[in-house]
Amino acid sequence: MTMAGKARTALAGALLCLVSLASANVIGVDLGTDFMKVALVAPRRPLEIVTNTASKRKTAMAINFDRGERSFGGDALVMLARKPAQTFTKLTALLGRHEDHPDIKALESTGLPPLSWNATRGGLELRLKDRGQESTYMPEELTAMMLSHAHEMTHMFGYNVPDAVITVPSYWTAHERLALADAVELSALNALSFIDENTAAALQYAIDRPKDKPHNVLFYNMGAGSTQVSVVTYGPKMVKDSNVGQFTLRGKAWDTSLGGHWFDLALTDLLATQFNLKWGGGDVRDHPRAMARLRSQAAKVKQVLSANMEIPVTVEQLHADIDFNTLVTRAQFEVAAADLFDRVTAPIDAALAAANLTLADVHEVEIVGGGVRVPRVQELLSAHLPLPLSVHLNGDEAFALGAAFAGANASRAFHVRQVGMSDITPFAVDLHLADAPRATAATAGGNVFSNMLHKLDGKEKEGGEDGEGVGEAEFKRSVPLYAVNAPVSARKAITIKHTRDLRANVTYADANPYLPAGTQTMIASFNITGVEKFAAETLADGLGVPKVTLRFAMDATGVPTLVEAFAEVPVQKEVTYEEVVEVEDEPAPAANDTAADAAAVDGDAAAAKAEGGEEVEAAAAVAGDKEGGEDAAAAAEGAKEGDAEGDKEGEGAGKKGDAKKKKGDKKADKKGDKKKKEKPKKKKTKTVTRTKMVTSSRRRALEVERHFSYSELRPMTAEEKAAAKTRLGALAAADAARHAKAAAKNDLEAYILMVRNAAGEDAKKELKAVTTEEQREELVTLANQLEEWLYDDGWDEEASVYKAKKLELSAPAEAAFHRMKEATARPAEVKRARLFIGKVRETCEGWKTKKPHITDEERQDLLEKLDKVDKWLVDKEDAQAALAPHAPPAFASKDVEPQLKTVQALLQRLNKKPAPKVEKPAQNETATAAAADSESADGGEKAEGGEDAATAPAEEGEAAEGAGGQERDAAAEGAEKPAEEPRDEL
Taking the complete model, does pTM exceed 0.85, yes or no? Predict the structure, then answer.
C-alpha cells in the first residue's frame, strides 16, 4: 500500500473510532454558508453555544488578508466592502467542486475572489493579491483556518476541546465530504464524524420529546445557501426494560440555490437597478467594491423587511461620488424574488415522495434556518401544509447543538438520555470490477480503466459465471452497492471466484434521481492485489479457485469505502481423534439364571414339538443336561407324551408346554430381578480412536490501495497536505507573533500612562513620602521619552523590544512603588510578629502546669529561638530607622515570616507531644484489693456476728458485688482515659 493510501486508510480508521476515542468534552460545529456556530457539551454542564471574542453566538464565515495579517469572523466581514478581493467568504460552497459546477458559476457573480482550476491538484484555487504579492489558497486550507479558529474559540471559552462533530448539508456528495475531511486534517480539530444538518436538528428535537408511538415530523430548513427538507419518523425503543426515543430518516430533498443568500442577491439586483437609474453613467454591477457595499446593505434590508413593510436605504458615495438614497418596500422585494418564492414548497413534495408518504401522514412541521423568517416564505408554507408551523427549536443554533449532542450520545464519557438514530444516504452507488493489468496492479491512467464502466450481463468472454475458470479472459462485472435511501450504517459484501488481481471502481449510479447536477460520478478506485499469488498456491494444492470477498461500508464522513478484502478456499481434511467411551462388564451366569434360561428353552421346544418339529427335542435334551434344569426336563417329558397320544392330543400338549413356558419365564424374570439387585453389572471406560472429515478455510488478507487516478476532481495527496500544513503553521506562527507583539505594545503603552500619572503633579502623598522631587521628575521624564519613541521609531518593533523598553522604566518605578507599599506593610508585619512572640511566651509559661510532660529543656529551647527572632526584629528596625524614606529599605515585610518558621515548627511539635499513659491495674489485683478493704471494714461485725455475718444472703452479696464492680470499672476507665487538658491556641 502506498503512503497516500495508508494515510487515507488511517484517517478513515480514526474517524470510525467515534465512541472509543471521544474525549470528555465535545463540540458541535455548524459550518453554514455565511455563519459558523459552535456548541459545547461537557460533563456536569448543559449544552451551550460557544461565544467568540466579540461575545457573539455566531461567527461570520469570512477570512481577510490585509498587509500580511489574517482576521476572522466579524473583523473580516467588515473588510468585505472595502477590500472584497482580499476577503474570502462562502468557503464551504467551494469544497469538492469543479469549476463547471452550477453552484460555482452562480457564486462567481456574487463577488468572490478570482477562482482558477488546478488540473494537477484536481481542485479549485482562490487567488489573493496582497501588498503586491500574489498567492493562491485551496478551499480546504481556508476551511481549515476557520475550523482552527473554532478551536481557539473554545480556548477563550475556558475549554480545550479538539474533538468535534461537524454538520454537512444533506445534498453533499462524497467529493464535498472528502474535501471537508482534508480540511479537518489540516486544522487543529479532530472530526469524530459528520452529520447532516437536518439530522442534527432532528436529534436536538428528540432530546426531550420521547414518542410512545410512531410520529412523523417534517423538518423544513431554509438556510443562507440552500433549502433542505427531511421527513423523520420518531418512535419508542426498548433498552434494558425501558423506553427510549429513536428516529429514522425516511426521505430527503433540497434546493441548492434557494435560501437567504439568494434573497440578498435579489435585493442587491433591485438596488443596483435603482442606482443605475440615478447614476446614468453605466452599470454599477461592473464595480466590485460598490457591489460589495450594496450586498451588505441588501442583507440589512431583508432583515428589516421581515418585521416592517418598508425601509429607507442610504449609502453615501456609493460610486462616482454619488450618494444613493431610496425606499424599498416588502412588495418590491417579493416581486424581485418571485422566482425564488415559486420554489419554496417544491422540496416538501420531493421529500414526501422519497419517503413514500403524503401530507396526510405528517403529524408535525418544524421550521428551522434563518430564511424561514421571511414573511412570504411562512405564508407559502402555511398555504401548502395542512398543519401549523412549529418553532420548538432555535432555528439558528439547533444544528450545532444537535451535533454536539451527537458526540455526547455516542460517547461513554457522558450520561445523557440515549436517542437511537438511523440516517440514510439519498444517492445510489454502484461497484464496477475488472481485472488489473498484467503489467502492474498500480498502473494509473484514464484510458486503462475506462472499460470498467460498461455494464455487462454477468457473463465473461471465456470461463464461467463469477469469473470461475477465467484464464487470460478479461473479467468485468458491475453490481449495485447501495440503493437510494439505504441506511448509512449498512455494510455490503461482494464475493466472486477469481484468480487475478482486481480493480474496483465505486461510482454513483447512472440512474440517480437525487444526484445534484454537475457531480462527478467517480468516487474512488481500489487496487486489490494478492489474489494471483494466493490462487497459484490453492490451485497447486488442488484446492480450486479461491473466493474473493470485498466488504464495503460508509465511514464516519459518509463516504462508501472498501474496509476489508480477503480471499479464501474451503479445505477438507480427515482428522483422527481419541474418545473415551463407557462399556459394561458382563458377570458370569449364576445357577438360578441357568435354570431360568432352561425353562424358557423348554417352553419353546414344547411348542415346536406339538407341531412335529424335532428341534424341540434337541433343545429339551440340551436343557435336561444342564444342572438345575428340572422344569425344563419336565417340559420335555410332557412334550413326548403329547406326541404319543396322536395329532389331536398334540395340540393339548402344545398348550401345556406353553403354560409351562410362561411359568418358567415368570420364574426367570423374578430370579433375574433378584440377581440384578444383588449383583449389579460393573462399568468401565476405554479409549477409542475415531476419524471424521472437517471443513475449514484457508484465508489470505489482500492488499488494498485507494487512489483517485481516474477522477478529475480528487482529494489532496499526502504531499499536498504536508505542504499545506507547513504553510498554515507559518501563518499561525505569524499570527501568534503578531498577537504577542500587540500585547507587549499595549502593555508598554498602558504602563507609560500609569507611571506618568502616578509620579506627576497629582502624585499620592504616600508616594511623595518615600520619593524625592528629583526621583519623581526622573520617572515622568523617562515615561515621556518612551512614549515619543513608541509613537515614532518604535511603532513597528518586535515584542521583545517592547518588553525591554518596559524594563527600563519599570526598574526605577517599581522601586518607588515598592517603598510606598512597604511603608505600611512592613510595620504591620512587625507588629504581627511581636504579638505572636508574646503569645508563644505565655503559652510556654502555661505549659508548666497544663503540660508538665514537656521538659524544661524543651521549653528553654523554644524560648531561645524566640529571643533570636526578637533580636532580629530589633536590629532590622534600628537599621530601617537610620535610613532615609526614599532610600532602599533595610528589610521587607516578606522577610519577617521566614524568621518565624523555626519557632512555629517547634511550637507545633511540642503542642502535639502526648502525655504519658497511666497504666490500668489488672482485674484480679483490683478485686483482691477491694476484698481486703471490705474485710477490714467489716472485721468487727464479723467477729461479733459469727456465722450470721459469714452467711449473708446471696442476693445482698451479689448486689454489693455488682455495685462495687461498677465503681471499679468507672475508676479504671478514668485511670485509662485521663481528662483532656485544654490546649492553648495562638
Answer: no
